[in-house]
Amino acid sequence: MPLKEKLLIERVRRAATVRGQRVGHGIGDDCAVLPLPRGHEALVTTDFSLEDVHFRREWHPPDSVGHRCLARGLSDIAAMGGIPRAAFLSLALPAELPQSWVDKFVAGLLKLASRFSVSLAGGDTAQSPDGILADIVVFGSVPAGQAILRSGTRPGDFLYITGTLGAAVAALNQLRDGEKLRPRSHPKHFYPEPRVAVGQFLREQKLASAMIDISDGLSTDLGHICEESGAGAVVYAEALPAASGKDGLTLALHGGDEYELLFTARPNRGIPKQIAGVPITRIGEITRGKQMKLVCFDGTQEVLKPGGWEHFGQ
């Protein structure tokens, strides 16, 4: 059973303080007081992590759940070219959950937070009638007017992706098939890496015209860029950095649970082949109209429909 609320909050506060707070005032008051650098705008994002939707206790160790919980928010900040600064965690926990699970969850979250100098600045706790619910809010900043939006691309821009695609959802499919996996052997799923440094580089060098993270799958999230920019896109199957194995192309196009960055850039921009040690691959271009197309391996074209994750649509 988790500790009583006051003791639980104090336990989390001590753990967060050991990792180092850098907010004006964090856990302990009704609100956190967060400094905003001169000339910056605030970035705020929020994400749920729900038991049996985003993770399962029998599949995911608690430190992985904590890591993934924060990674979701950090990835959103990365997609805007922002600097993450503080996080807020609200936890609803069932009464039968061991406190040791909570401790490991918090440790996994704080380990990732310390790598990005992010403070756990507050949140809330409650008893859940059924299952674990974690809601993460991440606060960041970006120089005024420099946030990379989904709406900035135009026809003729090139389309790029970071890293490789498909390994995260391939591991998830193995878990669904009943396989036992070693979490550290499948980091793309259990310990995804938010591309914060890549996002900041693209913003600082004024390289990206639009950007999004592909947590819901490339085909779905590319659709968001096209919708917001009023454009279409063509993707080349042979260019996709798909993970090897069965159904590699399908998983690369439609597999969610990735935290790579999908971005566009003007043709005259010199996009490096690597940024912060992460491979960058050109996979297509932005077109007129609003339709997305896939150029198959044999050169034929077909309509690329969003096929990634969508709540209430599965």
What is the element layout, followed by pairings?
Blueprint lengths: L4 H15 L20 E11 L11 H18 L3 E11 L5 H17 L3 E9 L5 E11 L14 E5 L4 H10 L10 H4 L5 H9 L5 E4 L4 H12 L2 E5 L11 H7 L6 E5 L8 E2 L2 E10 L4 E4 L5 E3 L11
Parallel strand pairs: 2-3, 7-11
Antiparallel strand pairs: 1-4, 2-4, 5-8, 5-10, 6-8, 7-10, 9-10, 11-12
Helix pairs in contact: 1-3, 2-3, 2-6
Descriptive keywords:
314 residues; alpha+beta; 60s Ribosomal Protein L30, Chain: A; Phosphoribosyl-aminoimidazole Synthetase, Chain A, domain 2; 2 domains; eight-stranded mixed beta sheet; four-stranded mixed beta sheet; 8 helices; 12 strands; 25% strand; globular
Percentage beta strand: 25-35%
Rg is 20 Å
Order of helix and strand elements from N to C terminus: HEHEHEEEHHHEHEHEEEEE
Binned, the helix content reads 25-40%
The fourth-level CATH homologous superfamily of the largest domain is: PurM-like C-terminal domain
User: How many DSSP E strands?
Assistant: 12
CATH architecture of the largest domain: Alpha-Beta Complex
Tell me the number of helical segments per DSSP (H or I, 4 or more residues long). Answer: 8
- Class from secondary-structure proportions: alpha+beta
Report the mean per-residue pLDDT as an integer. Answer: 91
- CATH level 1 class label of the largest domain: Alpha Beta
The biggest sheet, with number of strands, parallel, antiparallel or mixed sense and barrel status, is: 8 strands, mixed
Write down the oligomeric state: single chain
